[in-house]
Amino acid sequence: MAKFCQNCGTEIKDGADICLNCGKQVSKGNNNGNGQGGGKSKIAAGLLGIFLGSFGVHNFYLGYTGKAVAQLLITVLTCGIGAAISSIWGLIEGILILTGSIDKDANGNYLEN
Q1: What is the mean pLDDT of residues 27-35?
Q2: DSSP secondary structure, 40-62, as one string
Q3: Between the CA of residue 77 and those of 19, 23, 80, 87, what are the distances in Å?
Q4: Does 33 score more than 80 pLDDT?
Q5: CA distance 63 to 104
Q6: Rg of the Cα trace of the chain?
Q7: pTM higher than 0.70 for the full model?
């Protein structure tokens, strides 16, 4: 699989530590071949899930819009009565993110510590 520099998007050779185009150091693990590094914070996503999980904010942050919209609609359409369900769902996902069980965003990029 081809790898790309997360800084300039130029294709790099496997095992290269420095991009020959821009001269920047290539990070390990976050590059999945789409030209972008992960960039999403595991701690931010976990805390968003714990504190704002009933609104699906953590899933919007990670790019899982389908799940995020479902959580938001459960909370809004039940006038807050269903917020308990969405809150528990968000709390569980927040804990799973912080423990590393959920370690990728919707694009397949690994979350950064």
Answers
A1: 50
A2: -BHHHHHHHHHHHGGGTHHHHHH
A3: 50, 52, 8, 15
A4: no
A5: 10
A6: 17
A7: no
